[in-house]
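As noted in the main text, all predictions were made from sequence alone. Below is one such record, for Histidine kinase.
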Amino acid sequence: MAEAEIRPAAGAAAGKGKGQPQRAVRMSVELPLWRALTGYRVLTLAYVLVLFVFSYKKYAHPLVAAAYMTALTVWMAFTWRRTTSAERCTRAFLIGDLSFALGGILLTLVADSHERIMDGAATLPSIWTAGAVLGFAIKGGWRWAAVASALVAVVNLVERQELARDTIHNVVLVWVASVAIGYVVEVARASERTLARALQIEAATRERERLARDIHDSVLQVLAMVQRRGAAIGGEAAELGRMAGEQEVALRTLVSSGLVPRPGTAAPGAGEDAVRTPQEALAAPVPCAEDGPDAGPCDVRALLAPHAGARVTFSEPGGPVVLPAAAAAELAAAVSAALDNVRVHAGAEAQAWILVEDEPDEVVVTVRDDGPGIPEGRLADAEREGRLGVALSIRGRLRDLGGSADWISVPGQGTEVELKVPKGQVPAGRKRGRSTA
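Prediction:
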């Protein structure tokens, strides 16, 4: 476990001393591994030095072996702290550490006799070499570990000068162990990132709930009261009450979803000019904030959320629904066209519902209304007569995206439009925005 200092926001530490840092414990799956690696390198160095002392007289050139052991000890004395954390363990240090191990293995050919090497005598760095490989595994994952252990394997085979069974056994053991540890480290890092993201979402959700409670206890209740009193008084007060009711619905949607309008679009309640009627809420276009083929991905929820109003109910998943920017803009324009049809054909008092679903391979947006419905064959007749609102504004957009648009309508029971867009699709040769029906 690694401790991190967190300074509270203004007012968050009231009663506990302002400006004083709070101690928070932050999980780190790597820290125990780095500590274990440091201990392994120190202990194996001690083992190698003891092994050298007992085998000193058996070396063909003991002074060469002694010089390497001295250099290795000095290297460890100056670098042992490098393996205590990921920040200190740089790529340059790992390369130097591995070079010390590989050089010691090759130097065994000079320091030791051919007979002892053939009999399977330990190399000069012996098991200390595994520490250099494990450093690559913890720092860079299983791919770095595979490369480092492969280099160790080649140098060991060169030193032994034959495919001896014990040498192959040791090489395979180091390779499998380092790759396995590297893979475990990668999985642990991914899990730690997922946990951190979940904790951030949980904290944001709690803050949103706190704000929602405060707003519900103040602003929303005042707006509701203005709506009721305005309707009771009548006249200009009734119009004021109607607008207050619309802003109450818009504010409830904003608080519950946590979404804000895209840049360039007016937020409900932002000012007198930003007050929208139900008809304007149905028809308002929601373009992407960026243009061009290189624009980044867009959250479809952010494009569709501003449609919510007194006559439009917006329902969305809890997480982002991401599409390429151009595809998200085309889908939003198709939804706007569908809402245009609700406004024109179902009437100003019709209620509409927008439902966003994030499927594994596609995004599905359903627009439903409680209007009179569409008589059978009406869409085909309209297309033959040259009224191409549905054919171009909706079905044509979805076709360019590789998706589809389906209508389900029962006379007297409303209409439902299901828009499907496969993920990763970008419309070619189209400009953002709505086409006129």
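The radius of gyration is 35 Å. The first strand starts at residue 2 and ends at 6. These features were considered when defining construct boundaries for the mutagenesis experiments described in Section 2.9.
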